[in-house]
Amino acid sequence: ESVKLPFLATRELKARHALLHTIALDKNYIDLTTDSIIAPAVRHYTRRGTPDARFKTLYYLGRIRQNAGDNDAALDCFIKASAFASEETDTLSLARCYSAQGLLYSDSYDYEHAIEANRKAAELFLAAGNVNSYVNNILKIADCYWNLGSFDKTMDYVELVGSYKKSLSVRVLSTYYSVKLKVEIELKEDFPSTLDEYLKYVSPQYINWIIVSSAYRNLNLYAEAENAISNYSLYNHSAENDKNYYASMTQLYESMGNYEESVRF
Question: What is the DSSP string of 110-178?
């Protein structure tokens, strides 16, 4: 035993240092794409260690896999990590783990699992007092129902967070208005008031001008719709490579009866 203990202590220290180093880099927005730094922690905590250490190791390994573009491996890590959640596990960390699962499920069009993961994340964020993240995950659920064609359910979740509007960051507030606006257009509800609020309370650089253009188009305000598309191009440098931009231009010119121009897009 006297021979083994120092060796085990050394492995534990190496594993702990590797995990803390990885966490520090992630918190400083340094996106690792290889597991070279976290490897000692993975080797050690895969088979032993506290549930919290195993949770953190798998979660941050998942982040690395996600950064590297290996979404299947990332999702597998996040699912395994959540299974090790315990009373020691920080609420926000677990919430982020479920939120990451929700994103990856959505990316693979598995909206049912995405809804469940985002719901768990939302509950945890709210319990931790993080209103912006709570609302963001609720809106992700709404978007999942939108993709499933359940527009009434989409609106149910949008309305669920309406009372938090004054507490939201400008980015989350923009997401709230854009989701609310597009579903009101689809349900043919009275959306001009939502459009007016969106333009009044959100700075231009954060507005989803594609949705705004669609709203104006549905009101037969074509000049305003065209101006909104121009704003999208102005505030989004990647607009020329965005299929939504070209689809919106096509729809706009078709609505105006300018089929010759629509063909260009």
Answer: -HHHHHHHHHHHHHHHHHTT-HHHHHHHHHHHHHHHHHTT-HHHHHHHHHHTGGGGGGS-HHHHHHHHH
Asked if residue 25 has pLDDT above 60, the reply is yes
Distance CA 262, CA 184 (A): 26
Measure the CA–CA gap between 169 and 76, rounded to whole angstroms: 31
Q: What is the pLDDT of residues 155-182, one digit of tens each?
A: 999 999 999 999 999 999 999 999 999 9
Looking at every residue in the chain, the average pLDDT score rounds to 91
CA distances from 211 to 83, 178, 183, 228 (A): 39, 6, 10, 9
Q: Calculate the CA 3 to chain-centre distance.
A: 49
Phi/psi-derived region of residue 13, left when phi > 0, alpha when psi is between -120 and 50, beta in every other case: alpha
pLDDT given at position 46: 86
Helix-helix angle 131-147:170-186, to 10 degrees: 30
Number of Cβ atoms within 10 Å of the Cβ of 28: 7
Asked whether 173 and 138 are in contact (CB, 8 A), the reply is: no
pTM for this model (two decimals)? 0.87
